[in-house]
Predict the 3D structure of the following.
Amino acid sequence: MAEIVGAYFTSHVPAIGGAIARGDQHNEYWKPFFDGFPSVRRWLAEVKPDVAVVFSNDHGLNFFLDAMPTFAVGAAKSYANEDEGWGLPVYKSFEGHPALSWHVIEELVGSEFDITTCQKMLVDHAVSIPFELAWPDAAEWPVKIVPIAINTVQFPVPSPKRCLALGRAVGRALRSWQGNERIVVIGTGGLSHQLEGERAGFMNPDYDKFCLDHLAADPDALTQHSVEEVAQLAGTQGIEILNWIAARGALGDVPLAEVTRNYHIPISNTAACTLVLEPA
Ligand code: DHB
Ligand code: FE
């Protein structure tokens, strides 16, 4: 039987890729953020996942404002990255796991989630940066991926409640998969940040702490806010917390232990956080 070994959550700020490319991990600005990763890497080396189910949002590389699925599940053999215009290297491609993707898709549709199925899909910095952070020296990625994109970009975006329900349905699908893969769940983006408008630069450590303190033991607490309220509390891009909420849902309603947590403010315009949860 497949096993969900836990979840790794991290911010995906593109500037992290610039810091890696320049070798700035140890300078004054970046060190407090990168210091959060040795423990993540040790944990991954211990739990040895074969597959990653990755909840993230596409920022316009794959979907744009003209065609924006609320929830999209990749079912491709491979997923390439492309230049997004941030001045970053084009990152390694990812190997897919089409059979597991189709199982997740069938179970989600069976659970009445009206998802979009993508047999061709690019992945952007929201996938590549968390992988570069987790496996910095990998010649190729040690896991296959099932990418799940949540629209956090163009309103109307789904509610925290709906994203938690989606994640729980994904978790049920993973637990009913007959393969014997070891599955890590990944949630990327956030925490609080706003990139545009009058509140550009807005961050909210109080709301971030509320999310971090409830995510493991009481994720339903995060569903008390509408997504409009989350945009107020976390900033318009801080609604990327939806990816974390969905990833948390996939772990199921089991007691969880916090393996590591590193909150650091700011990276670029973002209150950055890295977190690992595993079944207790
Ligand atoms: C930044 C953060 C993001 O989540 C993103 O997708 C792009 C930029 C930032 O803080 O610069
Ligand atoms: Fe983002």
Notes: The pocket of 3,4-dihydroxybenzoic acid (ligand 1) is lined by residues 12-15, 59, 189, 193, 195, 237, 240, 268-270 (CB under 6 Å). The longest strand covers residues 256-267. The beta strands are 3-10, 51-56, 71-74, 78-79, 94-95, 116-118, 144-150, 182-188, 256-267, 270-279.
